[in-house]
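Worked example 2:
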Amino acid sequence: MASENYAIKGGRPLPPTSVNQALNFDRDYSRLRNYYETWSVDYDNDVSEENYCGPRMLGDLFDSLLPASEARRPMRIMDACCGTGLVGKELMLRGFSPVDGCDLSPAMTNLARETRAYATLYGGVDLTEHNPMIADNQYDATFCCGAFIEGHLPTEAIHELMRITKNSGLILLSTRCTFYTAEHFDSLLHKLTASRQLSVLPSFMNAAYLNDVQAHYLAFAVNK
């Protein structure tokens, strides 16, 4: 993958890190999957070196939304785009486990399985499509951390997250601030809240994500 052009931010090439190279695939999911299949063995170390804190931030947001008396009640949770299982491990530390997970890359889900944070894992899942392996209205909470970024999930993929989440269930997601603005994610979310398909919950805006990169951490309740 060293031959990939480096991502551009503000007219400047970003440093040629593995994280930045992953932004270059323009939603060509075959190539993106191949990249993650290869990157999987180094992924945790690479994102750690860039102080990736998305899973912890979403975990903090989740905790803040749950009353203390209910914070550890049994919940069925999906970690969508679970990667190597960083969100699953974070939730396990907070008393929520096992959870389910899915990812485009089977190699990533194989590594997630080693965390022992997951009950069921689905590899090869493209969240831009309806996936019959995952039934409707299954989850009390659906997480999606690190996937609403350049070259990865389009904003419309939130519909698949909504499909698998129960009525009154929660969706918690991260989105890079640059993606949120460039892809007009706020417009789609406004339409979904205006039509009462989603209800806005407290969120963390312009918060830490990676070195020199900020993200919004958004939370919604699903209405069906």
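The two ends are 43 Å apart (CA to CA). Strands lie at 8-9, 12-13, 77-80, 99-103, 118-123, 139-148, 165-176, 198-210, 213-222.
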